[in-house]
Amino acid sequence: MKIIVLSLVSILSCVAYGQNVQTINLVTQMVQTLVLDDGSTTQFWGYGLIKPNGAYQASIPGPILNINKGDSVYINMYNDSPENHTIHLHGLDVNQANDGVGATSFTVATQDTATYAFIADHEGIFLYHCHVLTTLHLTMGMYGMIVVNNSPNSNLIFDNGPSFTNEYRFLTSDMDRTWNDNTLSIPALFKFKANYFMVNGKSGNQLYNHAQSHVESYVGDTTVLRLGSMAYAKTRYIFPSELNAKVYMSDGRILANAFETDTLIVNSGERFTVVLIPDSNINGEIIVEYYEARNNNLEHTNMIKLNGEASINEAEVGLFDVYPNPANNQITFKTLSLGSTIQIFDLYGRFITSIFVNEISTIIDVTDYVNGIYILKYQDKTLKIVKQ
Amino acid sequence: MKKIINLLVLIVVSNVAYSATVYDTLHINKVSYQIGGVFGYTFQACVFNSSEVFNVQNEIIEINEGDILELHIINHDTLNHTFTIDNVVESNNVILPFDGANDFTLSFNSIGAYRFYSDVFYGKHLGASSLIMYGYEDYPRYYWNMFEQSDTLSNEIAALTTTEIPFDYQPDIFTINMKVHPDLENDPRAKIIQNVGDTIYIVVANSGKMLHVLHFHGYHVEIIDASLTPMYNGWIKDSFPIVQGEVVLVRLVPHQEGIYPVHEHNLINITTNGVYPGGMLNLIEIQP
């Protein structure tokens, strides 16, 4: 009953002040199956959209919620799971009743439904996640991104701001697989140790080869990237300099000093709006790095394929193949074009090693390499390889 | 004429107040300390106190703009310490053990928050780190000094059996002002109780050994000064990092009433000895 009263108060206040009404129906589910980069499976908990026909399926991350600035938003949450959950509307500065923290607002019990209501006062990127036993529920997969558009009728980032021709959203997160594999035997929570770093719920080749995660940005485009992090760590994006990346917003607010950069750190809970205006059509990747917060060590690297339709890697398939990439100890280099030398450089162009290729399969030992990105050159082709 | 004299007197009085010298004494104490109630444990702590009686919370000094601080520091530990403020007092001083003492005359060029600490391994990594707030005396001010620790490591540091943070550092207790949730609710320096429309200044320091990230529920804050990440200055944020050794001064002008959490968003930090909720989880209470 308390939940209903709180929700009614919130709904009435939104109706009074909002413009357009957006209603979103979400479900929470537990014990869902996630396929990982190596083909193995584990379980996750998450949010899903309830379709008009009543069907639903949770995903990791949860569905992106698209709303417009000024909207009155109602999120109906049905809890189809055996534990209490909430929705914390991260960064939206909602009133206390709708903040999604059990101790100060309310929780949604098993098989119950409740409504969260708010007015989207600011455009930008926001997040949502469960705030019950948060350390566990969040990393189990109960999170997603909210995008508040400036207007349904424009493609401006904000009033009088830059317009964009295409848009991509990336949410980083991490997972200690031992937790997901056996939720009945979670160790002391400070022992969390991420062994999977994900971008939009995918990592490694799973992300790199996922067409929907590729960024297409060519000369003449103005591409907006909406970036957020739910990882328990520091993440860092590395943009090719030809993209002329410029940061305009953070945490749903316009930066007074928009700035150009080739690298951008996104910490847990932070969000950034980045605009790309390429000055040439390039292939390659946007690199996303994961630094362990306790020792600032680079532990994982993901790559978002850039302009994948004409990817340098696909163009090189006939010359050589490299796997695994990223790699821990060794990389296998295969080619039918023998008699040349592999050269490896670090990102600063410093020579690391060379290996003459006289067999179809050559093993490159990277055990002693410092974690990070390296450039492999063979004949007239180059490829980024990642040691992790 | 009487009016002019009165004005002159007022100016003289205000100038005297403007250039006041403030005298204060800090005591360096080191003991074993139990923290976190039934979920906590005992760890070694070294702190700057206002007396030789140990209090796990470091002393915080507030002085008005224009004040000069005459600081007397007494070291009750059995080892040397220093008194260091980045860019103000260098680390090449020594405060001898067994009640050795040093005096420091401190004047500051700009208003803001300054972090002081003992720049010896067994000092700063056992928690001997706190804040001087210079100026902003007309506003409510709050202090969140973040410090995480591993009980095993703290014992090794105190026993002088290690001189470096291990690569696989795994802290198990996460404190603000050396307190953990829910004990933080009883810390008037930490728990904000103010009203809608008030201008509130909050100093967030990272005295620990790892990156920390703070997230505000219910509000955005303006970053006034981030000592080691000045790129953030002027940004309006609900989540922002405080890197190791950094002091971040933020301004909050709450637009709505309510009780909201503010917490570390690397969520292992809102546990105490592995139990949720705990650790670096604080509350803001804003009244109409």
Overview of this structure, please?
By secondary structure, chain A is mainly beta. Chain A is 9% helix and 44% strand. Chain A has three domains: 2-149, Cupredoxins -  blue copper proteins (Immunoglobulin-like, Sandwich); 166-310, Cupredoxins -  blue copper proteins (Immunoglobulin-like); 316-387, Sandwich (Immunoglobulin-like). Chain A has a six-stranded mixed beta sheet with strand order 10-9-11-16-13-14. A four-stranded mixed beta sheet of chain A has the order 2-1-4-6. In chain A, strands 3-8-7-5 form a four-stranded mixed beta sheet. In chain A, strand 13 and strand 14 (253-260) form a beta hairpin. The longest helix of chain A has 16 residues, at 2-17. Chain A is globular and about 70 Å long. Chain B is mainly β and 288 residues long. Chain B has one domain (18-287): Immunoglobulin-like. At the A-B interface, helix 2 and strand 14 of A face strand 13, strand 15, strand 16 and strand 18 of B.
Helix amount of chain B, in percent? 10-25%
CATH top level assignment of the largest domain in chain A: Mainly Beta
Count of discrete domains of chain A: 3
Query: Based on the structure, what is the oligomeric state of the protein chains?
Result: heterodimer
Could you say which structural class the secondary elements and strand pairing of chain B correspond to? mainly beta
CATH names the topology of the largest domain in chain A as Immunoglobulin-like
Main β-sheet, spatial strand arrangement of chain A: 10-9-11-16-13-14
Side-by-side strand order of the widest sheet of chain B: 10-9-12-17-14-15
> Percent of residues of chain B in beta strands?
35-45%
Summarize the helices and strands and which ones pair or pack.
The complex is a heterodimer of chains A (388) and B (288).
Chain A: H1 2-17, E1 21-35, E2 41-49, E3 65-68, E4 72-79, E5 88-90, E6 113-119, E7 124-129, H2 134-139, E8 143-149, E9 166-175, H3 177-181, E10 196-199, H4 204-208, E11 223-229, E12 233-238, E13 246-250, E14 253-260, E15 263-267, E16 271-276, E17 284-292, E18 298-306, H5 312-315, E19 320-323, E20 330-335, E21 341-346, E22 351-356, E23 361-365, E24 372-378, E25 381-387
Parallel strand pairs in A: 1-4, 3-8, 9-11
Antiparallel strand pairs in A: 1-2, 4-6, 5-7, 7-8, 9-10, 11-16, 12-15, 12-17, 13-14, 13-16, 17-18, 19-20, 20-23, 21-22, 21-24, 24-25
Chain B: H1 2-18, E1 21-35, E2 41-49, E3 61-63, E4 68-75, E5 84-85, E6 100-106, E7 112-117, H2 121-124, E8 129-134, E9 141-149, H3 151-158, E10 173-176, E11 192-195, E12 200-206, E13 212-216, E14 221-226, E15 236-237, E16 239-242, E17 247-252, E18 258-264, E19 281-287
Parallel strand pairs in B: 1-4, 3-8, 9-12, 11-19
Antiparallel strand pairs in B: 1-2, 4-6, 5-7, 7-8, 9-10, 12-17, 13-16, 13-18, 14-15, 14-17, 18-19
